[in-house]
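**Discrete fold encoding**
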Amino acid sequence: MKTITEFPRKVVEFPDMGIVMPDGCRLSARVWMPEDAGDDPVPAILEHLPYRKRDGTIFRDQLTHPYFAGHGYASIRVDMRGNGDSEGLMDDEYSEQELQDACDVIAWAAAQPWCNGNVGMMGISWGGFNCLQVAAKQPPALKAVISLCSTVDRYADDIHYKGGCLLIENFGWASTMLSFSSRPPDPLIAGDNRWRDLWLTRLENQSFLAPLWLKHQHRDAYWKRGSICEDFSAIHAAVLSIGGWHDGYRNTISHLVTNIEAPVKGIVGPWIHKYPHYAGPRPAIGFLQEALRWWDHWLKGAETGVENDPAYRAYVMDSVRPARWHPERPGRWVAETEWPSPTIKSQTIDLLPKGSRPAIVASPQNCGLAGGEYFPFTFGPELPGDQRPDDALSVFFDQPLLTEPIDIVGAPVVEVTFSSDRPQANIAIRLCDVHPDGASELISYGVLNLTHRASHEFPRALVPGETASARVVLDQCAYRVPAGHRLRIAVSNAYWPVIWPSPQPVQLALSAATLALPLRPLATGDETTFAEPEGATPWATEMVRPASSERHVDRDEKTGIVTLSISDDFGEVRDLDHGLVNGSIARETWAIHPDDPLSASGKTHWTQTLSRNEWSVRTETWAEMRSDAENFILSARIEAYEGEKIVFERNFEEKIPRALV
């Protein structure tokens, strides 16, 4: 990445600009703007997050927000209430209070003498979600949005449920937020006599969100609120949607470009869950330059040509050897002037010949361990590996060797006719690229709780032995399969630890299965290009402890239990400006017996540390999830320390009935 140190306008930073909400709650904002903005007002750009501007998102903030400010914007990074250096309490993600606070910050910014009255909102992940949801509320000053790694459907395409299956990330993310939100404000911001009171109040009111999310196992009103797919027409601001093929939110770009009536464009690269000016796998792109084109047009009225950009730009990845991490994905950029594209045709492939005997799917419960992380995040061994171990535990349908390469661009769909021996069953379908030597690379996958075959809102139990049909939509993808390779469609009824297992072992009998494969005419080279990445001066730090990442799969030969153990030490660093030292370690174990779905368990343990000179705090959080045939059983614990003295402890325990999950 090229570091830019000289900008068209000189930048001034305000590290703690207090923004008082109508109810009196003070939100802490870090603001960058041109030094002369008071004389020459500029548009504002808002990023509104719970992830702590002081020590959480500071790495990416330093690259991004001063860059925008140097090009004529007031760039505002707000700690949401109840997080970081802000006052108040947070009780859930995307609450009405959170969204209203963002609307109030937008109104506040638009009214400042240094603002020209036009505001944009941006963000990745949580910030990508809430900027779309805020746009749907239509605050008058909000003219444009850049949403990265986000979703349009909080139930069907988030970290909670997928295809009506319970994602393991539902518990994993609740455990993460329990740890994240346990940290105090910085005494240099909150005050030496006040930070501790704010911290203890925060801890006393902290929620463990997994039980709340598990109380809504179907697509009810809880999930509909904030799902912009309920009314795409509510968004009037111009939307630039960006995502990555190695991210969990790869479908959103297509959904937005297909459905939004406001101006909208989409870009999908080969990336994990990161901003694309520093993301991996490479190639990264000049995201900040692309963002400036968007902001300059919609917030300043400049003729940048963004309205004439292709509707959908996607990176078609070449076939590579399976690996848990790829520093680079060779391929090419393609561009579609409209999306869905009339150039993409669906090829139908019958996987089961008519008149053949049913294919019996009865996967061991540990099928899925080659699938990788739902959200690869650490530039480490989190991507899907060689799929052969999972293929061996699945029923798979190999296609003939390709005599010519093909470009798969879009969402593959598999229609199945089946019967089940249980009233609840899951199905997981993977599309793989099989190399000449047998190595199997994951292209895309989809999962479906078969009781949700007709509706996520009103699921119906299966009648054992009765024939039914279902449509499984795999994730969007853009992938070139070369000549001499073959396609494999692998079907299982377990996918651990991506989805929680059914309460009983299941046997599915597939009597018919048809793949609809979206094929695009073969791209001969890049059809669009991007500038090389740029950024402002990086965050200045001193490493105290290096980061490291480990993953192990172990089988206990005595008990048969298979355990995935994960340790992500995010290291510890000292900020060379204000001296704060922050560190974080996450540990997870996911265990299951191949023959027993009720043996499934997940455990997490997070450590957070903050210190400066003689001041130090630490929080430890633990959580555990298991289930019996009727209930999900959850527990968690927080411990908070000043130095080595424990100052707070709390336990959470809850049992939630299963509802066809």
